[in-house]
């Protein structure tokens, strides 16, 4: 597994505002959207393209366009939904599949409550969207879903990751042939005793979609 921490002052600036307890839900949603677009630029560096002939007003030429089959974008509900528009801004013709997953806050085990993905993902590049990689249980389960259906290349975009979650994910993916990359704005210090990322930003789903404050 490859971990890519995007090192850019604008990413760090926006992330700092996002973390702040004083940032309200509308601002949190807007910053998430902006951050995802910046991360998506890095995450799509190896998106597959194929040659494409066009004519400019001056001359014929050969450029590229997205290869077929088109990439699949998979937001993990609920919090990953807040990342979808920022991703689709860069990949407007991608297909979108959905996974609904929730972590039990006592056991920290992830379970799946909704799934709407194409049956056959053979040869597909997949982009998984989830703001938080904490224990890594949710992302590991999502990646298994996709590879079980034939996905052959997976990139996850996470706003924040915890070192423990990265290590767990790496261990959980042992033996998997499919390349997996995680692109993130920051790797934080650790998890606390409740499985929350420290310093983190709190509960991403609540901050995106919970009661406004
Ligand atoms: O790495 P893990 O320890 O599995 O935790 C990370 C998961 O927890 C959060 O979702 P949550 O379960 O809170 O659901 P929500 O998006 O509906 O708030 C987050 O969006 C991740 O999906
Ligand atoms: O810090 C964390 C950990 C899991 N889920 C969140 O939303 N935040
Ligand atoms: Mg949550």
UniProtKB/TrEMBL annotation:
Q: For this protein, what is the EC number?
A: 2.4.2.9
Recite the UniProt keywords alphabetically: Allosteric enzyme, Glycosyltransferase, GTP-binding, Magnesium, Nucleotide-binding, Transferase
Catalytic activities: UMP + diphosphate = 5-phospho-alpha-D-ribose 1-diphosphate + uracil
Q: What regulation of activity is recorded for this protein? A: Allosterically activated by GTP.
Q: What is the main EC category here?
A: transferase
Gene Ontology terms, MF aspect: GTP binding; magnesium ion binding; uracil phosphoribosyltransferase activity
Q: Which GO terms describe its cellular component?
A: cytoplasm
Report the residue ranges that make up the Phosphoribosyltransferase domain in this protein: 5-210
Pathway in which the depicted protein is active: Pyrimidine metabolism; UMP biosynthesis via salvage pathway; UMP from uracil: step 1/1
Q: Which family does it belong to?
A: Belongs to the UPRTase family.
Q: What is this protein called?
A: Uracil phosphoribosyltransferase
Q: Which organism is it from?
A: Nocardioides seonyuensis
């Amino acid at each position: 597994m490859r971990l890519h921490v995007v090192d850019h002052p604008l990413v760090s600036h926006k992330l700092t505002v996002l973390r702040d307890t004083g940032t309200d839900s509308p601002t949190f949603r807007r910053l998430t959207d902006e951050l995802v677009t910046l991360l998506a630029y890095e995450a799509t560096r190896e998106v597959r393209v194929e040659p494409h002939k066009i004519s400019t007003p001056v001359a014929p030429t050969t450029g590229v366009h997205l290869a077929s089959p088109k990439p699949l974008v998979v937001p993990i509900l609920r919090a990953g939904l807040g990342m979808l528009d920022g991703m689709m801004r860069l990949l407007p013709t991608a297909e979108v599949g959905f996974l609904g997953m929730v972590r039990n806050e006592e056991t920290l085990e992830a379970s799946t409550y909704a799934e709407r993905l194409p049956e056959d993902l053979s040869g597909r590049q997949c982009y998984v969207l989830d703001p938080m990689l904490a224990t890594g249980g949710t992302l590991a389960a999502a990646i298994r879903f996709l590879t079980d259906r034939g996905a052959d290349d997976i990139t996850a975009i996470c706003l924040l990751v915890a070192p423990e979650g990265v290590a767990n994910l790496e261990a959980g993916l042992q033996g998997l042939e499919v390349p997996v990359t995680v692109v993130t704005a920051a790797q934080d210090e650790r998890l606390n005793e409740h499985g929350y990322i420290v310093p983190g930003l709190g509960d991403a789903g609540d901050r995106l979609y919970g009661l406004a404050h």
